[in-house]
Amino acid sequence: xxxxxxxxxxxxxxILAAGTLAAGESAARAAGAPARNQxxxxxxxITRCIGxxxxxxxxxxxxxxxxxNPQKPFPRMYPDRVKVSDWSDKQDVDDRLTPYNWxxxxxxxxxxxxxxxxxxxxxxxxxxxxxxxxxxxxxxxSRQYQNGISRIDTDMCLGGSKCxxxxxxxxxQRQTGDGLYLDLLPSLAGNGIMNKCDRCYDRVAxxxxxxxxxxxxxxxxxxxxRPEIVxxxxxxxxxxGGYVYGENENGGTNTLYVSPVPFETLNAAIEKGPGRPxxxxxxxxxxxxxxxxxALLIAPLAGAATALGRxxxxxxxxxSGEHPLSDT
Amino acid sequence: xxxxxxxxTADGLMPAPIRAAYMTLLLFMALSGFGQMPIFKRYYIADxxxxxxxxxxxxxxxIHYVGAALLLGVAAYYLTRYLVAERSRRRxxxxxxxxxxxxxxxxxxxxxxxxxxxxxxxxxxxxxxFLDILHLAAVMGFLLVGAWGLTSRKRWTRIR
Lengths: 328, 160
Ligand code: SF4
Ligand code: SF4
Ligand code: SF4
Description:
The complex is a heterodimer.
Chain A: H1 3-23, E1 40-45, H2 54-63, E2 104-112, E3 115-123, H3 132-135, E4 142-144, E5 150-152, H4 162-166, E6 173-175, E7 193-195, H5 201-205, H6 211-215, E8 221-225, H7 226-240, E9 243-245, E10 255-259, H8 263-269, H9 285-290, H10 293-319
Chain B: H1 16-34, H2 57-86, E1 90-92, H3 94-116, H4 125-151, E2 157-159
Antiparallel strand pairs in B: 1-2
Helix pairs in contact in B: 1-2, 3-4
Residues 49-55, 105, 120, 122, 215-216, 218, 220 of chain A line the site of one iron/sulfur cluster.
């Protein structure tokens, strides 16, 4: 695959993204094209990753100004079941997601072409095309840009962790003792700020590459407009007889992993748990309620029609001399 | 010819079973709505047997949508009935006007929030927070004024 092309198209969409960011909040969508076609996506070619960790370091360096800055001692929180989540003394942890580590390398020992191989997989937020962490945030602290990037605004976040609860991969990570909740009712509501990969939205807005992509010596990640990246991921998968993850998971994401072995195999081989997301199936959870959209349109029509119907029936009765008053 | 009347009990209130169903609907809307905030688990309410669903965000979200559809149906029914059959004899009371404004606000902000939940709609944080607060404030207003109306037997409409 030609890297220049992908770089050029990336720049194009980066500038586009910068434009949309600057243009502000028009909810307008390009006529006809699904919104996700305007998104930036990345392909992560697992076969190329050597697990050097340069991306992890670069992410930390580029994004440390955004990291939490908690005040201690933390305000006492009620009731007692509310747990403090404090990573401020463990900022160096880099083998899982934390508020201070938005990208980590997962490894899986699997058999590839009959040979035992250790695969390394960079893991971070998938940047879902319709992100539940954004859409279900009860407070508008989490948002998505028109280029598909989702980000938690830590100036607004109250740390209730709902974004993590609704994320199919439990991505966002909490740090207690920082954020807006301190100025409200710190003992009774909120618990810090949630942190996750923001796709280096600020760099992207300036037409630059995300730090992890720029730092990778093996060009494991390719970034560009989603339709191109989807096509590239499938082409690469065909080339190696491999598999794609992320295209349809949770209804679609902007991170497409290409693996030489089935993702069930990978998912079984990786270490999973807090801060270590799975690679298993992820149903489209937003669709459950969104599929009720038709009901929301039909219900008021049905209500109005019922009232009209009863009125007309009563009017007919009145016209025929019968008493119009009746009740149920 | 007098305007034909439909479905109104002698005291101008909803028939008792419909009223009970309406109150239950409002209760579920309030519970599932407040359940959008991560509070029921923190404050042990979801630990009460039978209330565990309150802490499951996708469940409360789904229930809120189903309830919203029912509520829209009920609202459209009564609005239409008032407009076609009752307007000539009854007018909106002050209580009805206040509750009507609350309900319109709840529905309008709710509809915008539903639209936002589809892929491809990007609202600014400021607008989302504004909608959230307005939705919540209108709900609180509706419930408080409603509770007062319930105790002092207020009606949405009165005879002209
Ligand atoms: S992976 Fe999780 S945190 Fe990332 S966009 Fe999707 S729902 Fe949000
Ligand atoms: S895109 Fe940026 S924030 Fe996300 S993992 Fe890469 S470097 Fe970190
Ligand atoms: S920098 Fe590239 S090769 Fe190194 S761990 Fe990250 S993705 Fe893999």
